[in-house]
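Many introductory courses stop at the sequence. We go one step further.
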Amino acid sequence: DICCDRQLHNLDKLAGALRDVGARLRGAEDVELPLDGRFLRSMQIATFATSLGSFDCLADPDGAPAYADMKERASLVDIGSHSVLVASIDDLLSMKRAAGRLRDLQDIEALEVIQRLQAEGQPEV
């Protein structure tokens, strides 16, 4: 899942990346999309099937702070040869609690363990 800056130029970049991986609306893969920034801006939640797997774009996730605040608190994490911002544990916990699904409740337990280990200065598991 991602939450991104909703400025049109940023959404146009995201749309280009989604086109590069053959993104199609999940559950409606046969539907042709006008996959551009305006289309992405019109959706609160967009769920895609891509050549790399499932990909969800969330405009304003429940429990999330304003995008600028979430970005400021995020951690830069290396994934392969790329660096990406990952929401802080506090923000993830807030979003998971607001969602309240069974899998979110399970994620909360794991996030709380990580949070406790970090507070104790131990490496993450």
